[in-house]
Every structure is written in C-alpha cells, then in structure tokens.
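Input chain follows. Return structure tokens only.
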Amino acid sequence: MMKTTPRLLLPLLLGFTASLHAEEAAPQRINPYIALMESGKPAFGVFSSNVSLRAGASIAGSGLDFVIVDMEHSPFDPTRLETYLVGMTSKADVLKNGLKVRTAPFVRVPAAGREQLQFILKQVLDLGPLGVVVPHVDTAADARAMVQACRFPQLKGTPDYEPQGKRGVGYGWGARQWGLSGEEYARRADLWPLDPQGELALWVMIESAAAVENIRAIAATPGISGLFIGPSDLAFSLGVPLGDPAVEVATEKIVAAAKEANVPLGTLCGGAEVEKRLGQGFRFLAVGSDGGISGSVQEAVKKGRTF
C-alpha cells in the first residue's frame, strides 16, 4: 500500500526542490580568484617552481587564493604540470566545499605573448588549470591572440562571440579535473569577465616599455581577466635598475589604464609593499614563492586581508 507523505515534510521537500533548481540556475563558482574579484576583495598568492605532486598538495592546503606554477623560468614539462595539478585535488575539500577550489592554479607559460604560440596554451589548458599567465604581451594584437588561444569557438549569436576562440576541442582531462561533464566544461571553460559565467582567467604580463606605451589598448582587449606587472623585466626594458623612479612612473600609467578599463591589476611584491599596492588599486598580489610559506609571506597576506 502506498504511503502518503506527511504534511510536515512537504514544505521541506518543496524547499529542497527549489534549492536544487536555484543551483541549476546559478552553478557554484569554481574559481576562487573570480569569486574574490566579483566580491571586491583582493587575492593573494605565490609563484611555484617546485612542480611536483606533493608540492601541489602543499600549496592547495596553504590558504592562499592562487598559485602561479612557473613554467617560464623552470623546465616546461606538461607531464610534471599534470602531476602537480592532480596533487592539488583533495577529496576532503570536495566533500566540504563541492567543486569550489580553495587555491586557484594558474600556469605561467614559457612562450611570450608576442610569439603567439597557441599550441602551448592549448596543451596547458587541457590539463585543467583555472588560469594562465602569459609573459611579455606588448601590444593589443598580442593580447587578442592570447584571448583567442584560450577560448573554444563560440556558438553563433552569442553576445560574447568576439574575439572568436581558436582553442582546439579536446577537453576530457580538463573536465575531469574540474569535476564536470565534457559538455558542462565546454560551456564554463571560457574567459571571465567576457563570459560572466566563465571560470577561466587570463592574465597578461606587462613588462616592457612597448607594453607601457600600448597599455590602454591592451587593457581594453575583451577577454583579459587581469594585467600583471613584471617589475624586474619592466626595469630592464626601461634600461634602469629595479627600484628606479622610472619604474614607478610606468607603474602609475598601468594603474590608470587598468582603472579606466575596469580590469584587475596585479604584481609581485614583498610584505612591505602590500598596503601601498592595494592603496594604488592593485587587486591581486603574488607575495612570495614556494620555498616554504615564510613568515614574510604570512605577514604580507595578513596585512592585505586587514587593509
């Protein structure tokens, strides 16, 4: 004999069903960097050149918002990168937080933006990071080419059709890393904020005199998720030592362009500079490296969180 549902349970069941529909309408944000930018909070991370399984696991549990896995100044080995990204996956975190990642893995690729080597971005993205960092982007054409390399071709009629994507379709492993079906990954693996539901971030590095000259056009490129100033390369390009006033003058030009285009701006800095950079309008900061989360890194994050 079929049992009737007790009346007291009906509101609970209806509420549960409504919550399921709400989740379907607004999927959980996966990328913590994007969540922080959308909420107006700064993000803090480090560079990692120790590309190994256990280093990835250590960084994933560090409490940092992002890590930049550096494949520009360490050997470009996609197999090691794949292992590192797998190491960042924690069953305990998935049980506690669902698909939302605690520390977003970004990968700095070895090819400069001016080289426009699309295959490197494709190989990196297919391993499932949440963002890529492209060094030496000198012009708006460089920036646009990097946007196109990161995007799958878009469906006709979509409002964010341009810049049209050129990324090859081979998303099985990336979808597995994100915990999504292939179809859902293809939909969500797009560049934020061009696609408001996108979970991928593209940072282009501003580290040359040419890039500073072209900064307004670069910042206005649709699909850019952040500008990242490389202070050492920028100083070398300007022909001055690091710390020279000319570097700060160039930095102010970049800050102004980022604000004008409403694009998040980041850089590498030590703890002593965190408050200054946040006060200028920087929204994400790399404050160290993975040679251990040092006291200075912890102090830098502490200052930034209470700013």
